[in-house]
Amino acid sequence: MKRIILQTVIIVAFLFTCSLCYSQNKGAINRKWWKEAIVYQIYPRSFKDNNGDGIGDLKGIISKLDYIKSLGVNVVWLNPIYSSPNDDNGYDVSDYRNIMKDFGTMADFDTLLKGMHQRGIKLVMDLVVNHSSDEHEWFKQSRSSRTNPYRNYYHWWNAERGKPPYRYSLFDVNHDAWRYDSLTNAYYLHYFSRKQPDLNWENPKLRSEVYAIMKYWANKGIDGFRLDAFQFAAKDTTFPAFPNGFEKNFSQYYAMQGNLHGYLREMNKQVLSKYNVMSVAEGAGNSLTDAHNLVDAERHELNMAYPFDGVDIAKPDGYSLLHFKQVFSRLDSAFEKKGWLSVFLANHDQARMVSRFGNDSPEFRELSSEMLTTFIMTMRGTPYYYNGDELGMTNAGFTQIEDYRDMATLNEYRHVKNTGGDIPQFLKRIAYDCRDNGRTPFQWNETANAGFTSGTPWIQVNKNYKTINETDEEKDPNSALNYFRKIVKLRKDNLVLVYGRYTLLDKQNPDTYCYTRVLNGRKFLVMLNFSAKTAAAHTGINLSKARVLIDNYNNPSKNGQLRPYEAVVYEVK
Ligand code: NOJ
Question: What are the catalytic residues?
């Protein structure tokens, strides 16, 4: 009897140890759907117009669901579609539970969500709650009297106290974030435009309202939230004076302040943890530690960080690949053990990826765009890919201020003018980096307005739409579009590209970026030439037996020589 008990104990202990090993092994890569996702970002205003008013809409997106599915992506992030007076293209929400008139109706939204889910695509919504629109009912109430129950939903400074300590506004024409309101003789705070007053996160009532809004959308079945500008949400409401010139480094004073982490933990407890949703915050503080603290799973805050360190590298006079490699390698190592990253080179706030990081000349546009796509799809974090980049769409080519629509740019233009600044210089800079470059209509075909609208587009279509458009690229097996589909498939088919350990090779090479990704005995080698000339990469890996998984020239050499903007992914022993 004793023997049987002993044997049973041994067997149970053995099984327990095995299951522990298994879960630890599993834990080593800790699989999650949002880590394995490929996010395709849609800027609804510019994607597809269905009703001919010149503005993209939900029905337009619905009409393109099969196209989106054909890309192979499995998550769509939609920029804000809530009711909005559109001071900042939807980033000024006047009703969080309704759809912007320009974009359609709630019935359209329900159809869109259903259509995505039927195609195996998840939907991530933008959540804009650092600020609302000044046309939101909360703000209307708040400004109506000092004793209104909504007064503390926003930040007010009564004028009899004198002028409040200076706060920098990113979008205001004078860069002053305090706006005087004569109705109650007080100033309200707006880090962005005057029409985007900052919400008071220190007020628990406001926080509950936001969580209820999140639940409303989560109950509809959406799959995640992108938290707009959330790193700025918590504030020291005593508004101490900041040192002169702080605005040059405003993020040090605005990001990750006060009880931000407390609010995130509360949001996680009350909403995020209750649904199978992913969460990503725009911006990731001022250091890798800040970024890490947002998404370390043990802290129960958010899922993944979206730091700007990468996109900030490109400047009008170029960028150094050594710097680029250093930034992305540092990011990777900071998240190697815990937390998770997003990887991206563009979004709706950036100029076009190929014009900033690649080479948009006719000779190299497609090749360099494919090379950058290869980079995004072979790094460890979740790829975020901006609509139109799969075609290799380029910067807008605007030459005069009248071409631009972005409120922040137009305000900055007025500011430069008012302060006697250099206007030609300003126009040159925005031609390179204004976010309208990434907001021109999606180029579907070579008919009028690139097939985006039958009306007058809200912003001009890029003049190159007759040579760069989806319909033409569909027909060409070597197009940027078809390359995108192939590399998306490669990533989805190979967990090594999602979870594999990243090692940088040939670190000091100024032209090439090479790295390996290793998981469970499989080793992938990624070789990218970021330059317009042939370049030799010294990886120390013998390529004679390497298997080519994808390449953008179709016949890669095996001697480490990379042609201009060549991209190759090998499986090596
Ligand atoms: C970041 C968004 O991405 C940007 O488009 C917007 O203007 C600001 N936050 C303000 O909401």
Answer: 228, 282
CA separation for the pair 183, 304 (Å, rounded): 42
List pLDDT tens digits, range 195-208. Answer: 999 999 999 999 99
What is the 3-class SS of 330-374, one letter each residue?
HHHHHCCCCCCEEECCCCCCCCCHHHHCCCCCCCCHHHHHHHHHH
The predicted model gives 469-493 an average pLDDT of 98
Topology annotation, domain 34-130+204-488: TIM Barrel (3.20.20)
Residue 35 token pair:
């880590």
Which residue matches tokens 């815990």? 338
Look at residue 20 in the predicted model and tell me its pLDDT.
Answer: 38
DSSP string across 242-257: PPTTGGGGHHHHHTT-
User: Under CATH, which number does the domain 137-189 receive?
Assistant: 3.90.400.10
The identity of residue 282, as a single letter, is E
User: If one looks up domain 500-572 in CATH, what number appears?
Assistant: 2.60.40.1180
β partners of residue 516: 503, 525
Q: How far is CA 284 from the centre of its chain?
A: 12
41, 88, 347, 407, best to mutate for ligand 1 pocket (most atoms within 8 Å of CB): 88
Identify the pLDDT of residue 249.
96
To the nearest whole percent, how much of the chain has pLDDT over 70?
95
Element of type H or E holding 143: helix 137-144
Query: Whose Cα sits closest to atom 3 in ligand 1?
Result: 349
Amino acid 2: pLDDT: 56
Tokens of 136: 């939101």
- The pLDDT tens digits for 372-426 are 999 999 999 999 999 999 999 999 999 999 999 999 999 999 999 999 999 999 9
Q: Which residue has the tokens 């100024």?
A: 510
Residues with CB under 6 A from ligand 1: 88, 91, 128, 192, 228-229, 282, 348-349
Q: How far apart are CA 324 and CA 310, in angstroms?
A: 7
Q: Distance between CA 231 and CA 130 in Å, rounded?
A: 8
DSSP string, 196-233: SPBB-TT-HHHHHHHHHHHHHHHHHT--EEEETTGGG-
Q: Is 396 helix (H, G, I), strand (E, B) or coil?
A: coil
Residues 6+ apart with CB under 8 A from 186: 146, 156, 157, 158, 159, 180
